[in-house]
Amino acid sequence: MKPVTRIHSRTAVLLDENIDTDRIIPARFLTTTERAGLGKFCFNDWRYRQDGSDNPDFPLNKPEAKGCSILVAGRNFGCGSSREHAPWALLDYSIQAVLCSEIADIFRGNALKNGLLAIVLDEAEHRWLLKNPGVELSIDVREQAIELPDGGRIRFQLEPFARHCLLNGVDQLGFLLQHNDAITHYEHQQEKAA
Amino acid sequence: MSARTLFEKIWDAHVVAPESADTPAVLYIDLHLVHEVTSPQAFSELRSRGLQLRRPDRTLATLDHSTPTLPAAPNGERPYANAEAKAQVAQLEANCREFGVQLYGWDSSDRGIVHVIGPELGATQPGMTIVCGDSHTSTHGAFGALAFGIGTTEVGHVMATQCLLQRKPKTFAIHVDGKLPRGVGAKDLILHIIGEIGVDGGTGYVLEYRGEAIEALSMEERMTVCNMSIEAGARAGLIAPDETTFAWLKGRPRAPQGAAWDATVQRWRGLRSDEGAKYDREVRFDASQIRPTVTYGTHPGMAIAMDKPVPAARNAVEQRALDYMQAKANQPMQGTAVDVVFIGSCTNSRLSDLREAANVMRGRNVAKGVRVLVVPGSEAVRRDAEKEGLHEVFLAAGAEWRIPGCSMCIAMNGDLAQPGQLVVSTSNRNFEGRQGKGARTVLASPATAAASAIAGAIADPREYLTEVAA
């Protein structure tokens, strides 16, 4: 994973609550055996009209949302399935951060492991961001702070290990493999106990 | 040692390296279940790093999501939805050969939905940690296992190390007192619970279902309850193992046998929350007050007794959900016209679910214009159901009897509903487009689904059960 230290962008807003992984990427696109190239299916059934053209009512299709890589979404974003295709699709669609007052557990874990910043905010700050689409933000992962255009800062919590991995581009599998001896020891203990 | 919850006991027994402020715990995984959709990229990762699969003996694979539910043609060709689905299945077959994983594939008489066959084989056991790249892995919690869904990156972690990096979740006790009324089942119960605690009420928690009504449930019913824990946002939900659990597991192929069985059961008896153990959150329900329950919106938290009026939308998002469903505020869901009925999925495709549906449909006909798909959860369920003649009940009523798979629950194998169609479904998700673009899903129990198939409209199964008794 490439290090993620700072993301600077205007925000795009999806007001809907409970945006589930089927809406992020419908299941019929999960027959792939690759990680790449899922951006074109991101929000597929919301983003396109029947004839395949862009749905002008989809907020991320609006001209002012173009180029935005920070998504502010209604609470409980990413609920539903464990499909990692959801963060893969968002990243490939150029979304680099999701800000929300609550993010589903499995989605959040998957997102952070792929360098997609899934950040949980206080409700008041979340509400303000929902009401102010297009605001220019700078997310500082090291400081765990979001800088606002007026110089204000929103602090956020990030699980320390996830933060460490983001900042240093740590390969979590590599980290786990370093525990090989402890894992082998555990397995021996279990076999003895059985 | 202070009083611990069941979850804490399982967690503690699987810590390879404890968590600290800086790092999560390294948690050992006893059983890894694999299917074709969420595994190919993980196998590729192993291959690109030159890694082996650490414990093939703790890994079990099956084909379920992308698989057609219509039989193969005489030349052996299977009716896949598309070439990609076919290639995905072939990829899992090749990956299992390369990495030495036992695959319950097309040629296996035990193939089926991953969360149906794990328990059937006795691979799912009390006290285990179980993961799968599938959020409904929570199903296995019915046996008092800590079981949860993971993403594909973590699938790779488990393949390579048999471990995961995990922060300890909080605990949430759901007490259900009293007895479920006749004709009201586990699906009604869990829909009611999610309707009350909300679609995100369990986020950050492991649920433990407890109390008289939970203890009275059969294993199949417990699986239905635990299966939907994720629909309340909880990655895992569990129930303490008891005599019902042990009796169900005894003699299954992967369960301990002989003297080892007795010793193991003795150990399993300790797997219950200690008196005085503290939970981070607790709620209490009265089972006797629960009625046949269905969903009316576009997530499983929008659930209500079918005879109760649908609540008015409190905001634009809820209004949008009602509009999508063409549901009307202040009117009950009961009586809503139905186009399709789906009986299947890891929530409700076991033998007892099929019996429940067949009891309603026996000697009756599916309403004109309604399409009914009955998809058993596994080859074993299919065999047992056919031995009892359940398939004949369904076929005689005018339903389709398919071969096992996830089918219309996730609608990625070609089994899907058309835009605008209303599906009464025994599955677990009523998200927009889940069962086909524009399709409207109403989640329900097998009995309700069957009654609705007969009536051609959402119907109370108790009316049909009474007639049978009379």
Gross CATH architecture of chain A: Alpha-Beta Barrel
What is the makeup of the main sheet of chain B? 5 strands, parallel
- The level of helicity of chain B is 25-40%
Would you report the number of β strands of chain A? Answer: 7
The assigned structural class of chain A equals alpha/beta
Poorly predicted ranges of chain A: none
Mind telling me the CATH superfamily name of the largest domain in chain B?
A: Aconitase, domain 3
Q: Within the CATH hierarchy, at the fold level, what is the topology of chain A?
A: Aconitase, domain 4
The total of helices of chain B stands at 16
Describe the protein's architecture and organization.
The complex is a heterodimer of chains A (194) and B (470). Chain A is globular and about 65 Å long. Chain A has helices at 21-24, 44-47, 85-92, 105-113, 123-131, 160-168, 172-177, 180-193; strands at 6-14, 70-73, 97-100, 117-120, 136-140, 145-147, 153-155. Chain A is of the alpha/beta class and 194 residues long. Chain A has a single domain, classed as Alpha-Beta Barrel (Aconitase, domain 4). Chain B is α/β, with parallel strands linked by helices and 470 residues long. Chain B folds into three domains: 6-166, Aconitase, domain 3; 170-240 and 267-289, Aconitase, Domain 2 (3-Layer(aba) Sandwich); 294-469, Aconitase, domain 3 (2-Layer Sandwich), CATH 3.30.499.10. Chain B is built from 16 helices and 19 strands. Chain B has helices at residues 6-13, 40-49, 83-99, 114-120, 152-161, 186-197, 212-215, 219-227, 243-249, 258-268, 316-325, 351-361, 379-388, 390-397, 446-455, 461-469; strands at residues 15-17, 25-28, 31-34, 59-62, 102-104, 129-132, 146-149, 163-166, 170-177, 205-210, 236-238, 281-286, 293-295, 303-305, 340-343, 371-374, 400-401, 422-425, 440-443. The N and C termini of chain B lie far apart (56 Å). The model of chain B has no long low-confidence stretch (mean pLDDT 97). The chains are: A alpha/beta (194), B alpha/beta (470). Chains A and B meet through helix 4, helix 6, helix 7 and helix 8 of A and helix 2, helix 3, helix 5 and helix 11 of B.
